[in-house]
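Possible regression after last week's pipeline update?

I re-ran a chain I had predicted before the update to compare outputs. Posting the input and the new output here so someone can diff against the archived version. Not blocking, just want to make sure nothing changed silently.
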Amino acid sequence: MSDTSPLISTADLAARLGDPRLKIIDASWHLDGRDARADFETSRIPGAIFFDLDAVSDPNTDLPHMLPSPEAFAASMGGLGLSHTDILVVYDTVGLFSAPRAWWMLRHMGASDVRVLDGGLPRWREEGRALDAGPVSSPLAARFEARVRPNDVADMATVLAALTGDIQIVDARPAGRFSGQTPEPRPGLRSGHMPGALNLPFKSLLNDQGGLKRGADLARVFAEAGVDPDRPVITSCGSGVTAAVLTLGLTELGRDSLLYDGSWAEWGGLAETPVQTN
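New output (post-update):
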């Protein structure tokens, strides 16, 4: 993989196993509530540690897995044995679903070298590569120094201001949820989308092997959704997880973007925010 890509291939990761600076992170999370930690103990890449997306979140809000404070994030990562200077590779058991969220969090909080495993555990397993199973010992504590990157995160005020059309809002939810024809999986949320938002379901960015499309194929997906590559973008989704897949894709194309951390869990749960259905 290129030095500028946010992705790493299974072959490149396999070649680096044993590097003392390499830390492999299973950041699996499932919307249906399936126990990702149990999956981790059943099958994982050798040396991997488990990143609990729900636990590494802000405990002072009812919104799901919002960014914690830099201090809390640093303490959590240090407890997992991760340093901001480590070579970090994040994967999930779906292929490319929740790992980009952990990649985005680590990058936002100052990790200097963090990549997403393209194709995740499914591709690693399909290629017959080594796997571990069973409980893992607690890692040795490390020092993670949080250095927050500016201009990564959008809050509700930023999204409200973007409704003027100066910034493109790109929503990663499936088309039915975006249009309001399919109910939201979380109770109490209105259906629909932010007025003027563009819909780009995150699965549209994936190739037939479950990894990220590249080059012209990836750029075409954004163009067909109406995204202008020369204008600013805010990515959004149901709760800030699959929005990170869009952010990953834009990063692969060399484009910056903001991620709306509250996403539809916040927007759709408020009575005063404008909602469009179509």
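Follow-up from reviewer: compared with the archived run. The mean pLDDT is 96. Marking as no regression found.
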